[in-house]
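Assess this:
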Amino acid sequence: MFKPVFTAAFAALVALSLPAQADETWATTSGSVIYEVDIGDIAVLSFPGGAAPQLVGADRARVLFPGLGGNFENRAIHDGYWVSQGAPICSANLTTAEGVTSQRWGRARIIFDRPAFPTGFTLLLGACFDEPEQALRADLN
């Protein structure tokens, strides 16, 4: 009895630590956008640092969308924030749900083409508290 319960508990623990949707990657003119992981209801995606003017010189950036984590059937427009490492562009620090603190961050908005996976999207980025207006188009790989 102990072994099957332990095995099931271990399998569940491993499943919780896996990436959200490993097959969700999109192509942009700057490189790939990758759905990295869910942190509770927060979806974490990464994208190329050179994808927007405010990210020049950054290797990769992460964008976090509260309310999108685990949502693969009812996607629409979601607001969030991006963060990367590098020279500061904002006068204040931002600490993400992952515990990363940086002065290089901004608002983000993702607009999906269709409500269910698979679908492309447009990612809008803004610096610091600026309205997200810099567009990054992402199409399915």
